[in-house]
Amino acid sequence: MSLSAERAPLSRLRLAGRVLVLALLVAGIVAVWLNRAALEPNAIRATIESHSAIAPLVFLLLHIVASLLFVPRTLMGLVAGGVFDFWWGLVWAATGSVLGAVAGFLIARYVNSGMIDLESLPKLGPMLQRAEAGGWRAVTMLRLIPVIPHSFTNYALGLTRLSLGGYALGSLLGQLPMTVAYVSFGAAGGRAATGSQDWLLPAIVGAVALAASILLPHWRKAR
User: Fold this and answer.
1) Cα dihedral 198/200/204/209 (nearest 10)
2) pTM
3) More confident site: 170 or 146
4) In a 10 Å sphere around its CB, with 0-12 CB exposed, 13-18 middle and 19+ buried, how is residue 88 labelled?
5) Higher pLDDT among residues 23 and 196, named by residue
6) Distance, CA of 45 to CA of 50 (rounded, Å)
7) What sign does the CA torsion over 4, 9, 11, 12 have?
8) Domain ranges (residues) in the chain
9) pLDDT in tens, 157-169
10) Residues 186-218 as b or e (16 or more Cβ within 10 Å = b)
11) Nearest-CA neighbor of 151 among 117, 108, 183?
């Protein structure tokens, strides 16, 4: 048997695996869209709090799934602040954001596996090539642009040859201002709901972080 004949079943298996992963993602996105009315912070919070012994783990798993299925990352930040308050909420929200980003990045790299040439993408390709050349700094700047969906960026950057370490570092730094903002708002809401009087400070921190996340891209562009 020739070497090419031996490799044929393996190639078909890999192709089937990529198609299966892609089909599962599409099915998940459709399911989320059809049940989007159920995606509200109190429902997610109740799910996490019902598993109090492993609440951080449940939150991280939900965050990863949310990142893969185009659920807004801001929603998970609000939930993190409401469930874990500010500091631990920030830890788990930042960790979940990076894990979700890495998961989407690796899935896109696995499904693509060199099939898509960036030069064949008329508008997206040049941007991804610049990100590839710029490394973690370029990823950071892309993450600071609030209008670009988190999940879309994960999958798009998975088409590049960016190193995993540089991608993860850039994602962490670029996502941090918005993460701080929404965790702070979630913590303020959680404290206010329990009648606590110290909700104002996290609300102020959230407003400052949100303003920074909006102004930083403009400052960088001006430079």
Assistant:
1) 60
2) 0.85
3) 170
4) middle
5) 23
6) 9
7) positive
8) 1-36, 39-222
9) 988 889 999 999 9
10) bbbbbbeeeeeeebeebbebbeebbebbeebbe
11) 108
In whole angstroms, what is the distance from residue 113 CA to residue 35 CA? 32
**Which tokens go with 19?**
């198609």
pLDDT of residue 11: 73
Q: How far apart are CA 67 and CA 48, in angstroms?
A: 17
> Tokens representing 96?
């979940």
pLDDT over threshold 70, residue 203:
yes
Give residues with Cβ within 8 angstroms of 74, minimum separation 6. 178, 182
Instruction: Tell me the C-alpha distance between 204 and 222, whole Å.
Output: 27
SS3 for the chain, per residue? CCHHHHHHHHHHHHHHHHHHHHHHHHHHHHHHHHCHHHCCHHHHHHHHHCCHHHHHHHHHHHHHHHHHCCCCHHHHHHHHHHHHHHHHHHHHHHHHHHHHHHHHHHHHHHHHCCCCCHHHCCCHHHHHHHHHHHHHHHHHHHHCCCCCCHHHHHHHHCCCCCCHHHHHHHHHHHHHHHHHHHHHHHHHHHHHHCCCCCCHHHHHHHHHHHHHHHHHHHHHHHC
Report the share of the chain in percent with pLDDT over 70: 91
Residue labelled with tokens 């999940």: 151
Residue 135, token pair as written in the block: 């490394």
